[in-house]
Specification:
The structure holds two protein chains of two kinds.
Chain A: H1 12-21, H2 25-37, H3 47-72, H4 80-95, H5 101-104, H6 127-151, H7 157-176, H8 186-193, E1 195-200, E2 214-219, H9 220-238, H10 240-250, H11 252-257, H12 262-288, H13 300-311, H14 322-341, H15 346-375
Antiparallel strand pairs in A: 1-2
Chain B: E1 3-14, E2 17-28, E3 32-36, H1 43-50, E4 58-63, E5 66-68, H2 73-79, E6 81-84, H3 96-100, E7 107-108, E8 111-112, H4 114-127, H5 143-156, E9 161-165, H6 173-188, E10 192-196, H7 200-206, E11 209-214, E12 217-223, H8 229-237, E13 256-265, E14 269-277, E15 281-285, H9 292-299, E16 307-312, E17 315-316, H10 320-327, E18 329-332, H11 336-340, H12 347-352, E19 360-361, E20 366-367, H13 369-383, H14 400-412, E21 418-422, H15 430-445, E22 449-454, H16 457-463, E23 466-471, E24 474-480, H17 486-493
Parallel strand pairs in B: 3-10, 3-11, 6-9, 9-10, 15-22, 15-23, 18-21, 21-22
Antiparallel strand pairs in B: 1-2, 1-4, 4-5, 7-8, 11-12, 13-14, 13-16, 16-17, 19-20, 23-24
Helix pairs in contact in B: 5-6
Classes of the chains: A mainly alpha, B alpha/beta.
């Protein structure tokens, strides 16, 4: 008798499918991408560039984690960028230490919230903490309203968050008349660029070390983003809440009949998404040293959703992992960085990114089909 | 006679669960072979291997003595094997002739030779005694005529082995007779036929040889003359089907668990009152649209009622499905795929869904994965769910009966006081039906109340202590087990008599 039996995938096509479906596929892709490009772009692996890549990565990671929860229930949150902008403005207007009337005297908040002496929390001892709290509260409110409209009124997430995005973004620009709010306290700025551990690769007997040869190794954004990631990972994979999120993503009706508090979970998911946007806003604003009402505009959402989807989170819901999103963000930031290093214009960069996201969506479809064939 | 197709140790497993194991038999050329077995016995897997749709994990096939290893459906067609499926694969918008020639139109100068096609099609149709013009659109034919077109296609492709899979499900008795005549004709022409059907008397009448599959293994084989129908059933399910229904193991108590009073929702329910006692199985019978599922949904808090009262074990019920679950209700819906299961999720995840919150450990409600593993494994053993690794294998890879056991299993984890079972045996084969009945009996014997909704009066008469009949949202009357009378129950359901 001829035995064609195989229990383990031995054919190369099977191996390839395994690799393709692996949690680490995008990490391998990223490494391969670096390996291919590094010889032609030596600057890619220069310490200064790596520091740059990392600093771009952390805030994007936080936003993408929020989006991952929303995608897991087969929803979408388009209002994250606008939430970053409004919370940036809210935080900055509370703690700015001085404001030039030339810049902001036309803004509706001039006189009531902002004066030449800065915002109401300027100089208050725990002002920065309170300002961050205020940012989180504003985000919670936005997420709550989004979630309510979607879960209770059964409106499509796409429509609700699109409207939120446009309205909130317009509001942020109106109250500041599109001006940045600068002069933020040092303790806030440290959250965006402050080093905890730095490295220096030069000679040891140098008496004076120039600032630009000291490279950040561990920074506050890294600590904050990784903390958010670990908490989110536990929340999604190990808690009752996380399992309910995935159950709703796979089959909302069955989840409801089985006693999953569907509406409450959906509202919470949108609150999580908005709070993640607010935390990222802290990092973005601190790095810019200003509250900027146009943060999160343009292709920002493309980066967020693209990173989550390319990592492997399904647009169809029910399939999501924080680890995937982490790798997706790494890939995306690498892509932006290398395209910039190639001296492409920002328009060209967006065109390439659009193509990559389209292939990510295609990847999702192909993966889903492969998984289905495996389990048939 | 020589063997046209020989199977030698053919096996196929999914997720380590064998669907077909070590199957060996031969199909004699020019004979009609009947292949019988329950759903999930491995018939479809076997057909898919012969048809080149799935590759066997072990074993070999021989076609006319030569090794046969099809890798696509086209390979099977080329070898001379044709399939007539339950759902026909015809283009209803095209004509009969076009359907026959769809994969290779004869062309001259790039144009289809319509005359030649029509001529050849007419010849084949005449042989099958199908009186239709080759230019007739297939969409205008009856199901029986469409099937003849499929057979015509097989003849056109010069198939020497034609496999019929449940061919009579959508045919009228007259069309069925005609099909049998056609099969006799095919046999007389020297073609070989494999005939798969649940209608055992047809198999007995039509076939020369019979092969019986159970759990992926050949359990019986022989000349059709040596088989009678009880023998076939015994071989298929592995025991005598003395009773289609298990004996009830305990009598119902008098302690009322569910009390519904005057439930009314305009256009849906009209003054419905109902009780279910501990340990009692109450059958709810009615025709389509009688309001049975609507009543179940209202009882479970999924749909609103304008007026009326529902009490469980004497207490008023909190609103919504969550409230009903916490009070001790369980709902096995009629729509397993859309409302009962997360088809793409693992079996264990499905089993743990209802009791999920009880697996959360304070303060962060971290899921106790070890407890979930233990309890879902226990449920798998307890319910006899036939599956591989339940933490990986998705529910959609299970047979209908096993899927239904998963649905019942997930509710059982919370030990409910009342089960609403809505068409629990729909899409489930004979053997698995028996297991579901036994499960219902066990739940009742353990003190649960059961509202068993079904369109099959036989199963309600077999299982229920009492049958309540509904028509157009109203309760028409009820009957106790001692006075079950088919005619009276049916006439209540048709509203022919006042109760």
């Amino acid at each position: 008798m001829q035995d064609i039996s195989v229990t383990k995938p031995s054919r190369t096509s099977d191996r390839f499918v395994d690799l393709f479906l692996s949690d680490y596929f995008i990490l391998y892709m990223s490494l391969a991408y670096v390996a291919v490009l590094a010889p032609f772009l030596p600057i890619l692996l220069a310490p200064a560039n790596i520091v740059n890549i990392l600093s771009n990565m952390w805030p994007l990671l936080i936003v993408a984690i929020g989006q991952t929860f929303v995608l897991a229930i087969a929803g979408i949150d388009l209002s994250q960028g606008a939430t970053v902008a409004i919370t940036s403005v809210v935080g900055a207007m509370l703690i700015t230490t001085s404001v030039s009337p030339d810049v902001l005297s036309n803004a509706p908040i001039w006189g009531s919230v902002l004066t030449e002496a800065g915002g109401p929390l300027a100089g208050v001892s725990s002002g920065v903490g309170l300002a961050i709290l205020a940012m989180v509260v504003v985000a919670t409110l936005i997420g709550f309203l989004n979630g309510l409209a979607i879960a209770v009124l059964n409106m499509p997430a796409f429509m609700v968050t699109l409207v939120s995005m446009i309205t909130i973004s317009a509001f942020a620009i109106w109250i500041t008349q599109s001006e940045n709010i600068a002069r933020l306290p040092e303790s806030f700025i440290a959250l965006g660029k402050g080093d905890i551990v730095s490295v220096y690769f030069g000679a040891k007997d140098e008496s004076q070390i120039a600032r630009k040869v000291i490279y950040s190794l561990v920074t506050w954004p890294m600590v904050i983003a990784l903390t958010v990631a670990v908490v989110a990972h536990v929340l999604l994979n190990r808690t009752v809440f996380g399992r309910q999120v995935l159950a709703i993503g796979i089959n909302r009706k069955a989840a409801e009949i089985s006693g999953v508090p569907v509406r409450r979970v959906i509202v919470l998911v949108f609150v999580i998404s908005a709070i993640c946007a607010a935390l990222a806003s802290v990092l973005y604003s601190a790095r810019l040293e200003a509250g900027r009402p146009t943060l999160g505009e343009g292709a920002f959402l493309l980066d967020v959703i693209g990173a989550a989807v390319i990592g492997g989170t399904s647009l169809f819901g029910g399939k999501a992992k924080i680890l995937w999103t982490f790798f997706g963000v790494v890939f995306f930031v690498l892509l932006s960085n290398t395209l910039n290093l190639m001296n492409l214009s920002s328009f060209q960069v967006d065109m390439v990114k659009g193509g990559v996201i389209l292939s990510a969506a295609l990847l999702d479809v192909v993966r889903t089909r492969l998984l289905r064939e495996r389990t048939r | 006679m020589t063997a046209i197709l020989t199977l030698d140790g053919l096996s196929k497993s999914w997720f380590g669960v064998p669907a077909v194991s070590d199957l060996s038999f031969a199909v004699r050329e020019g004979s009609v072979l009947g292949l019988i077995g329950q759903n999930g016995a491995g018939k479809s897997t076997l057909m898919n291997m012969i048809g080149g749709v799935v590759a066997p994990t072990a074993g070999a096939m021989r076609w006319r003595g030569q090794p046969y290893q099809p890798t696509s459906a086209a390979d099977a067609t080329r070898a001379g094997i044709a399939f007539i499926h339950q759902e026909l694969n015809l283009f209803t918008n095209l004509s009969i002739a076009e359907n026959l020639f769809i994969d290779a139109f004869p062309r001259r100068f790039g144009l289809i030779q319509r005359g030649a096609i029509a001529h050849r099609t007419a010849q084949i149709l005449a042989r099958l005694a199908l009186q239709a013009d080759p230019g007739t659109a297939v969409g205008r034919l009856s199901p029986g005529e469409r099937q003849l077109v499929e057979i015509a296609k097989a003849i056109h492709n010069d198939a020497s082995l034609i496999i019929f899979d449940e061919p009579t499900t959508s045919l009228t008795p007259r069309e069925t007779e005609r099909l049998f005549e056609t099969i006799a004709l095919l046999r007389a022409e020297g073609r070989t036929v494999i005939y798969i059907s649940h209608i055992l008397s047809d198999v007995k009448r039509l076939c020369d040889d019979i092969v019986v599959l159970r759990d992926g293994v050949k359990v019986d084989e022989g000349a059709a003359a040596d088989f009678d129908v009880p023998h076939m059933i015994r071989s298929m399910i592995g025991r005598d089907l003395a009773g289609l229904y298990p004996p009830r193991s305990a009598a119902p108590t008098s302690e009322v668990v569910l009390e519904a009073h005057g439930l009314t929702q305009p256009g849906v329910l009209q003054d419905v009152s109902l009780t279910v006692a501990r340990g009692e199985i109450v059958g709810l019978f009615g025709l389509m649209g009688a309001g049975r599922s609507e009543l179940a949904r209202a009882l479970f808090g999924l749909d609103p009622v304008a007026s009326g009262e529902i009490r469980l074990a004497g207490a008023a019920l909190p609103p919504g499905p969550r409230g009903r679950i916490s009070a001790g209700m369980a709902f096995v819906t009629e729509n397993r795929r859309e409302e009962g299961l997360m088809m793409d999720a693992a079996i264990a995840d499905n089993l743990a869904l209802v009791a999920l919150e009880s697996f959360g450990r304070t303060p962060a409600r971290l899921v106790d994965t070890a407890a979930i593993r233990d309890q879902t494994e226990a449920a798998k053993r307890d319910l006899g769910i036939k599956a591989g690794d339940i933490s990986v294998q998705p529910v959609k890879a299970l047979s209908g009966g096993n899927q239904q056991k998963v649905v019942i299993g997930k509710w059982q984890m919370e030990a409910p006081k009342l089960f609403l079972l809505d068409e629990p045996t729909r899409g489930v084969d004979v053997g698995a039906k028996f297991e579901i009945y036994a499960l219902a009996d066990r739940l009742a014997a353990q003190g649960g109340g059961i509202l068993f909704i079904s369109s099959e009066l036989d199963e309600l008469m077999g299982m229920a202590d009492r049958i309540v009949v509904m028509n157009r949202g109203e309760v028409m009357g009820e009957a106790l087990r001692a006075d079950f009378d088919r005619t009276r129950i049916l006439s209540l359901a048709f509203r022919e008599v006042a109760a």
